Amino acid sequence: MPHKHLSPKVMRSDAVAFFKKLLGETYVLTGEADLKAWGTDWTKVFEPKPLCVVLPSSTEDVSKILSYCNTNELAVTPSGGRTGLCAGAVASDGEIVVNLTRMSKIMAVDTTGLTLTAEAGVTTQALQDAAKENGLFFPLDLASKGTCQIGGNIATNAGGVKLIKYGGTREQVLGLEVVLASGEILDMNVALRKNNSGYDLKHLFIGSEGTLGIVTKAVLRLMPKPRNLQLAIMAVGDFISIPKILAVCSQKSASVTAFEFFTEVAHKIVLQRLPGARTPFKDISPFYVLLEIEQPGREPELEELLEALFEEGLITDAAIAANSTQFKEFWGLRENITESLAAHGQVRKNDISLAIDKLDGFVKALQVLLLSKRPKDMEIVFFGHIGDGNLHINYVSPKTRDSKDFHAEAREIEEGVFKLLASFKGSISAEHGIGLTKKKDLHFTRTDSEVSWMRMTKKMWDPKGILNPGKIFDL
Ligand SMILES: Cc1cc2nc3c(=O)[nH]c(=O)nc-3n(C[C@H](O)[C@H](O)[C@H](O)COP(=O)(O)OP(=O)(O)OC[C@H]3O[C@@H](n4cnc5c(N)ncnc54)[C@H](O)[C@@H]3O)c2cc1C
Question: Is 447 exposed, middle or buried, given 0-12, 13-18 or 19+ CB atoms closer than 10 A?
């Protein structure tokens, strides 16, 4: 069904012919398999139905595509690595998918000013590698880094496992180049750390999920390489101990670079599903915390920190990664949860956040709610960036279960979770965005007034509403 507010002024065949003339036959995809594959992201909830997929190779190409689509009122879905978890890059309504995979050049690395300039289609892993080759460090780090693109990271304001120390994507962006709905190229690409000259418009595009413009280039901050990273995995008997562990780490001035948690169910599923996965623990424990610290010299040794945690009764067992293989193994237990769950069953995901001091009260109330609502064949799997107050709740049922029934049941529980969350002033989306899957729940986190200002902002930058229509909110 076409978007109600748009009345396309060209036939599909004319639009495809225009794109083929602009980009060449190879870079305009119309085959059924291509439309299915490129028209969706990780969510796989909505049936992809794009009009076509276009693969530009330059900012000028993107500008010409958007100018044509704007004139002819054609809906556009910006697309990156398609690892999104809220159907932001899903084209389910006859949209033109504009995917930036071909725009993957790293243009410059400035080792004095500590910046990196890249096209938006470069993967997060490639950025990390480029920083490393230059003796530096790019701190945005997420399990999808081999596939997701910096354009997608910026559009979702991705968080990841190092946010606790370095901040999220927003904190890494110094400059942006964006193509607006009209085709205008807006250059906000100044690589300045200090620039208080009027409104800083780039922040509007960070986290806007492709609804305000297509990011084509970014200037990113680099960091000195962390020195002497140490990793421990800890077994924890109860949830209340987890924020207390974090507090002890901060008091002992350990420089925490990651503080992640997962439950025994998550641990068990990774061990079942990930070939070669190994755990250092003999006994099972309800919770596990992965603690990474930078230990450049003065801070207490990790062993001392763990001893203190034992003495305070906050952990029941712990293991320190003794070499790079164990480092990978321990991280693997956390980073492979999403993929292991996908192999294990049908999954519905919540990605919520709370102020750390509210976590315990919320989790207690949540346990009561789940006890009364959870169907027998549904597992509820918790993990996440707990050091940032970010909890991923996963509703998991066997693949044999009827999908509609599963989602209906999980939805009922989820609504209760969001109501509870609103009473604790939490967010229904900590880092994944809103996209299509969560727009009906935006009101749990944002006031009517906020959503109304968002709509007005959208109308100002994209008056015809061609960019990612239906995402975040309806117009
Ligand atoms: C295994 C796994 C682990 C993950 N871990 C994390 C995590 O720790 N933290 C986290 O935050 N997320 C995580 N994610 C979610 C996902 O990887 C991020 O949201 C990521 O930033 C999406 O990037 P992408 O290139 O895949 O974007 P896509 O999925 O292609 O698109 C995401 C959104 O961005 C828009 N978009 C894409 N490119 C552009 C562009 N150039 N200009 C404008 N808009 C654009 C799309 O329209 C869509 O709305 C994980 C996903 C998986 C599968």
Answer: exposed
Residue of the CA atom closest to atom 36 of ligand 1 = 152
Mean pLDDT of 198-223: 98
List of residues 6+ apart from 15 with CB closer than 8 A: 8, 51, 52, 68, 72, 74, 96
Task: Give residue-wise pLDDT tens across range 105-116.
Answer: 999 999 999 999
Cβ atoms of 102 and 121 within 8 Å: the answer is: yes
Token reading at 346? 């049908």
- Degrees to nearest 5, angle at CA 42 with 418 and 139: 85
Distance 41 CA to ligand 1 centre (A): 9
Could you list the beta-strand ranges (E) of 192-267.
Answer: 214-221, 223-224, 229-236, 255-263
Q: What is the pLDDT of residue 254?
A: 72
Partner residues linked to 179 by β-bridges: 185, 214
Single out the residue of 45, 98, 382 nearest to residue 213, CA to CA: 98
Q: Which of 40, 66, 156 to mutate to test the pocket of ligand 1 (most atoms within 8 A of CB)?
A: 156
CA-CA distance, 69 to 54, in Å (whole number)?
12
**Mean pLDDT of all residues belonging to the chain:** 95
Q: How far is the CA of 213 from the centre of ligand 1 (A)?
A: 16
Pocket lined around ligand 1, Cβ cut-off 6 Å = 41-42, 77-85, 88-89, 100, 120, 142-144, 148-149, 151-153, 155-156, 158-160, 209-210, 214-215, 338-339, 431-432, 435, 468, 471
The answer to whether the CB of 223 falls within 8 A of the CB of 137 is: yes
Lowest mean pLDDT among 41-45, 56-60, 362-366, 456-460: 41-45
Q: Which residues contact 271 (CB under 8 A, 6 or more apart)?
A: 277, 278, 279, 333
CA–centroid distance, 84 to ligand 1, in Å, is 4
DSSP state of 320: E
Q: Taking CA 183 as the corner, what is the angle to CA 177 and CA 187, rounded to the nearest 5 degrees? A: 20
Mean pLDDT of 53-69: 98
Distance 89 CA to ligand 1 centre (A): 8
**Strand order in 185-188's β-sheet?**
106-110, 115-119, 214-221, 173-179, 185-188
Supply the pTM of this predicted model: 0.96
Closest-CA residue, ligand 1 atom 21, reads 153
Domains of the chain: 12-102 (3.30.43.10), 106-224 (3.30.465.10), 229-338 (3.30.70.2190), 346-448 (3.30.70.2740)
